Amino acid sequence: MTTPRIVTVRQNILKANDHTAADNRATFAASGVRAINLVSSPGSGKTALLERTLRDLAGQLAMGVAVGDLATENDAARLRQWGSQAEQIVTGTICHLDAAMVGAVLPRFDLTALDVLFLENVGNLVCPSSYDLGEAARAVLISTTEGEDKPLKYPTMFNTADVVVITKMDLADAVGFDRELCRENIDRARPGVPVVELSSRSGAGLEPWFAFVRGTAG
Q1: pLDDT of 177
Q2: Is CB count within 10 Å lower at the N or C end of the chain?
Q3: How far apart are CA 154 and CA 104, in angstroms?
């Protein structure tokens, strides 16, 4: 019995992606840049968290952002107002960033002048889980407004996380967010993963996130 062609094609695509990701990783290492892949469903607050990070850590870290979206440059424009370079990657019909897209945008940055490069992935908790971009770390965001069962619905994504960030904690009481249940579900999907609870709006809980960005989190 022959292997279904769709499986063979997918394996070849991911193998090619992994080779390009290794090249990206080598480029980041040679330049001394910490690359962080931010992944979440749409509306979880990736761009808001990046805005707050760029604002609060300005003067402490040199940061850049590569922003993935199916269309428009709206998010990149939002981020540039805080003084950091932000380059848009328009993916068209593709629901994730891949290593080749990231590799293509890297020449626009002076990587040797950066400490951190954020890779803001397309809003999606399915496809991005399979694609290594060459990042040093992956942050998966879940907001209090999404429901506590997201880690159980999308276990593959949460199982790839180096940190899980619970955003919009300022809305937790208003939406009836069950903090303990959410953390229990995160631990079921990714036992022992660090969890950061924060509000980009109020600033509460940002210090542990900043430690992760710097690479100094315990």
Answers
A1: 97
A2: N
A3: 29
